[in-house]
Amino acid sequence: MDSSTADARPIDFTAGTPQARPLDVAWIHGSPSAKHNTDPDIQVHAYDEHTFVLRQNMAVNYEGPFLFLLFGNERAVLIDTGATESAEFFPLRRVVDELVGQWLAAHPRDGYGLLVLHSHAHGDHVAGDAQFAGRPDTVVVPAAPESVREFFGFTEDPDRVALVDLGGRVLECLATPGHHAAAVTYYDPPTGLLFTGDTVYPGRLYVSDWAAFGRSIDRLIAFAADRPVTHLLGCHIEMTTEPGVDYPIRTTYQPDEPPLELPVGRLLDIRRAIDEIGDRDGRHPHPDFVICR
């Protein structure tokens, strides 16, 4: 058997128990002058050989969102497409194609697919969708609530745990409205990563539906209690390392950022904050996040 044939054998994504470990990466975080910024348009970090975290340059868009690319035996999934439509200023398709090409060089497959999903439908998470129009073997699921509910089967059962099989790597997907009606949280059993979008991250947690947000946090707490969750990974960093202090909205330079990865206990912190806030609208700072009701 030659090496190329051996590499084509299915990868066993179910072996072992996921272990929590830091991402161990210095994220690009903008610069004092966006005009003179020399960072890449997209930073790529390999969490492991099958799991990649991407960050958009804040000089391109102040949101600086994080995106996630996960590889299975039959297809990869890209979660979110960033804040910028233009491929010239935000070459997401090119970067994803390069990563897919590199992965396939190490793990040859025929007819390898790409699935594009979203954490929710806000513009800073869907702007790059059009870059994947016409890409071979690619399915882009629109982020609109009705499309999300239909794809995951949430229309019939909003509380179901939907399964998305990438080929031996099966994501567990939950509807988690509150920030947005179409918000979805993704759990990846091989890594133990829980991708929480804008529902949970080190920043301003904007809540459009207070009751739904509380239910979603409760559901995530119960879900995580039954699974080995290594980290929560949201889609932004907006806090400083000073407790309770966030960066100003629209800032393009964040030199003092906390880690993106959060402990699963952060869900309990948010639950306690929800109880403390009660029926009060407004901005509610807490040491590691700010709830904006």
What does this structure look like?
- This protein has 293 residues and is of the alpha/beta class.
- 20% of the residues lie in helices and 24% in strands.
- It is built from 6 helices and 15 strands.
- The protein has a 6-stranded mixed sheet with strand order 1-2-3-4-5-6, with helices on one face.
- A hairpin with a 2-residue loop joins strand 14 and strand 15.
- Helix 5 packs antiparallel against helix 6 (266-277).
- The protein is globular, with a radius of gyration of 19 Å.
- The model is unreliable at 1-6 (pLDDT under 50).
How would you summarize what this structure contains?
With 293 residues, this protein is an alpha/beta fold. The protein has 6 helices and 15 strands.
The backbone outline, from C-alpha atoms, is globular
Rg measurement, Å? 19 Å
Report the span from N to C terminus: 60 Å
Helix content: 10-25%
Number of DSSP strands? 15
Provide the structure class. alpha/beta
Please give the largest β-sheet.
6 strands, mixed
Q: How are the strands of the largest sheet arranged?
A: 1-2-3-4-5-6
Q: Ranges with pLDDT <50 over ≥5 residues?
A: 1-6
From N to C, what is the helix and strand string?
Answer: HEEEEHEHEHEEEEEHEEHEE
- What oligomeric assembly is this protein in? single chain
Average predicted confidence as pLDDT: 96
> What percentage of amino acids are in beta strands?
15-25%
Total number of helices: 6
